[in-house]
Amino acid sequence: MEISLRNINLTLRKNPILQDVSMCVPSGEFVSILGKSGAGKSTLLSVISGLLLQDSGEVYFDGECVDAVPTHKRDVSVVFQDARLFPNMNVLDNVAFPLKMRGVRTLERRERARAMLAEVQLQGLEQRRTHELSGGQRQRVALARALVCRPHAVLLDEPFSGLDEEVRDNMRDLVLKLHERHDTTIVMVTHDGFEALRMSDQIAYLSGGRIIQVGKPADLLIHPATPEVVASFGQTKALEGVVCDGEFTYGKLHIAAPGVEGPAILIHTESGATEVLPLDGASAAHATGSESTQAAADNVAQANAKE
């Protein structure tokens, strides 16, 4: 499903939250809305889902205006940071709940819920209560519940920010696999530039309620529109990937890397400069975590400083 926002404006408590926001999310793509806390990212998701009605502008799904369509009829699922599971239900009933609301018979909805739990690697936990789950498991249940009805679009509101880094990495991989498998349009809110670079077909940078830049991950990383966009990738000092046929790949980030082939790291400085450097066989074998990658970045930074 294509999602189109046209000149969206919204003021809350006399404060302008969204200002003339226009963007298009092509059908089947994964688009991240990146920006600082308070930029209006979550509010924009609420407008798309119908939880909030904008003051002016229109929201279109596949070319049809949905401003008058209530949330429960927009065929859009939302996954929040805190999962928002029902504590009085077990895992299976949580996932099956949207199907129950749609009148799906008990046997079918339980079968579909079990199949969805298997897709998020939670088979065998159907009878668990939500308080017995880890944070990562709760987010997997929330993701399964969001997908079980086969919605036209899924909105992710900082879905991994409450998880530790290893669990976050696993969840990112899982979401990308599910996105590829189900070909569902996904819009994700994040303040993590690393996350946006890795997962997105497109990134929209939101600042002060306005869209500052929209483009492919490489566009924002190499050709940032403002210093604020540059700063959003300040945490991304070095990314480990591979170069094939002159192109560096890290998740969905693709950058030209002439003269390099095989395992490599992309160095990104705070000034916004990028460079792809090869990793020799020994470095590649030992570069299994962020410490090794950061060490490589520090070495490059020290060498540049000496020059």
What's the short story on this structure?
This protein has 307 residues and is an alpha/beta fold. The chain is built from ten helices and 15 strands. The chain has a six-stranded mixed sheet, sandwiched between helices. A five-stranded antiparallel sheet has the order 13-12-11-14-15.
What's the main sheet like? 6 strands, mixed
- Our estimate of the beta-strand percent is 25-35%
Average predicted local confidence, pLDDT: 90
Distance between the termini: 51 Å
The amount of helix comes to 25-40%
Helix/strand/pairing category: alpha/beta
Uncertain ranges: 281-293, 303-307
Q: Given the C-alpha coordinates, what overall shape results?
A: globular
Rounded to an integer in angstroms, the radius of gyration calculated over CA atoms is 21 Å
Helical segment tally? 10
Strands side by side in the biggest sheet: 6-7-8-3-9-10
H/E order of the elements? EEEHEEEHHHEHEHEEHHEEEEEHH
Q: How many strands in all?
A: 15
